[in-house]
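Chapter summary example: a protein plus zinc ion.
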Amino acid sequence: MKKYLLPTLTAAVLTACAPTAKTPTASSTPPATIPEAATQPVAPSWQEQAEAFLKDYSAQYQRLYAQSSEAEWRSNTRIVAGDTANSGATARANERMAAFTGSAQNIQRLRELLEHKQELTELQVKQLQTALYNAANSPQTIADVVKRRIKAETQQTEKLYGFDYKYQGKSVTTNDLDELLRKENNPLKRQQIWEASKAIGPTLKEGLLNLRDLRNQTVQALGYPDYFTYQASDYGMSREEMMTLVRRINEELRPLYRELHTYARYELAKKYGVKQVPDYLPASWLPNRWGQDWSAMVEVKGLNIDPVLAKKGAEWQVKQAERFYQSLGFQALPPVFWEKSSLYPLPKDATYKKNNHASAWHMDLNQDVRSLMSVEGNTEWYETTHHELGHIYYYLTYTNPEVPPLLRQGANRGYHEAMGSLMGLAATQKPFLAGLGLIDPKAKTDETQTLLKEALNYAVFIPFASGVMSEWENSFYADKLPQDQLNARWWALAKQYQGIVPPTTRGENYLDPATKTHINDDPAQYYDYALSYVILFQLHDHIAKKILKQDPHATNYYGSKEVGQFLADIMRPGSSKDWRAVLKEKTGEDLSARAMVEYFQPLMTYLKQQNKGRKYTM
Ligand code: X8Z
Ligand code: ZN
C-alpha cells in the first residue's frame, strides 16, 4: 500500500477558504456587548461546529489528496533520469497538501474541538483525531522543514527506482535478480547476484540520513519524540508497546524458526556442495534478497504451479485474482483499475523506469483505484497480485456513505496488509488449486512438504519483519543510530534474529538496509507486515474452522459468499471501528500468534526428526 506525506495551507489560502474561518466560535467567545433588540442567535452546539468543520475539511482534504496521488502516480510510473518536471509537480502537490493538513489554524481548531470530545459523536472524534495525526506529519509551524522533507522524499524515490542494476555487465531488473536468486545453483554466481542486488545501497545513504532528521523533526513539532513513535501511535500504542508486541510475536515463532534455520543450513550446504555446514546462513544462499521468504527452496511434487502460471501469463493472474474475489461476492474491479493501473514490467526498450515494488493506490479516496506492479507469471507474483487486490477491495468496500473520507483506512495498517495476503495463502492451497484446474486433483502430494514450503514463506518472514526491520528502524529513528553503525547494526540484527550473515564483510561503505524499499519510502512501519501475518492466520483459522468447516491446511474459499461477507464486514467500517474490538468481535480472540503457531505445529515433529544430530546455532 501507499502512504503519503500528508498536508496543509499557506496563510493566504487559509483565510480564503479554510474551514476554520467559516466556523463560528460564538459559544466559546460571546461578544462583549449584545446589541439591543437583536434577536440572539442560538449558538451552534459543539457537534454542529464539528460537523461544519469536518464537512469543509474533508472536501478540501479529498481534493488535495487526489492531486497529490495523481502527481505521485506519475513520479512512480515514469522515472526519467535528470527529469525535473515530474518531481517538481509532485513536490508542489505535496506542499499544497501539507500546507492544508498541517496549517496552524487547522491544528488549533482541531485541538479546540477535541477539548469538547465528550459532547461530540464517536465518529466526529475519530475524524478529528485522524486529522490531528495527519497534521503532525506536516506541521506548518516548521513549514521549511516540511518543504525540505517533501523534496528529499521525492528525490529518494527517484534514486531508488531509477537505479540501474547490473549483473555480468548487463542491466537487469529486480524481477531478473529475484528469478536468478530463486534458480541459480552455483554459490559463486549466487554471491555475485546478491551483491548486484545490494549495489544500490550506498547511493541512498545521504538521502536516508537526511530523511531521518527531517522525519523526526517534522513530528517533533507536534510533540512526538521521534518518527517511529509517531507511526506506532497510529495503532494507539507507544513505541515501547509496539516493540514489546513484535518481540513477543518473534519469540512465539522462534522455536519453529530455529528448526527451519537448522534444516536450511544443512539442506543448502548439501545443495551447493559445501562440506562444512556453516553456523549461520550466508545471505547469498537464500532465494530472496533479504532472506525474508525461503519458500522457493522447496518444490512440492504435484503442487508446483510455476510452469502453468508461466504459460498462462501475467494478465491471467490478475484476472484470476479478480475472479477469486468476485466468487466471494465482491464486485468486478471498476474500469478505471484496468485503464489506469500499471500492472506489468516496462518493455525492455523503455526510455524510463517505474517503481519496481508492488503497491495499491486509493487515488481520490473514492472510486479511482489503481495498482502499480510488474507482474510476471510465477508463484511470487501470483501471491502478490492477490495481496494488492486485497488493498483494492478494502478501498472499495470502505468507500461508502457511512465512512467519511478521513476514516477510509484499514482498521489498522496491519489489517490492510492482511486481507490480500490471506487471499494469497488461500489461493495456493491444494483444494483451491485443484478446483481451479491448476493442478491435477488426483495427484498425490506430500502434506509435510507442503506445510514446510508454507513455513518457509510465512514463518521465515517473522524474524525479518518483527526482528530485523522493526529493530533497525526503531534504532534508526528513536535511538539516533550513529551513521557509522548503520550497516553493522543491520547485520548484527540479521545474525541475531534470522541467523543470517553476509557472504563477505559488509562495512559502512555499504548500506544494505536501504536496499529494502520500505526503509526509504514506507518508513518505520514494517511491523505492519508482521502483524498482518499474525492477523491473517487468525482470520484464516476462523474461516476454515467456523465458516467452511475445513482443515485450515486444505481449504477452498472459492465461491463462498459467507467468507466474502465475513471479510467485507471487517473492511466496511474502515478505521471507524476500534481495531481490537473488530478482531474480538469477528474471531473471538485478541491479537495473538496462537493460530499461526498452531497451523505449523504438525511440522515441528518432522523438523525435529530431520534435524536429529544436527548442530543448532540459534
Ligand atoms: O511490500 C509488500 C507489499 C506492499 S503492498 C507488496 N509486502 C512486504 C514486502 O514485500 O516486503 C507484502 C509482504 C511483505
Ligand atoms: Zn501491501
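Key point: Residues 6-18+44-163 form one domain.
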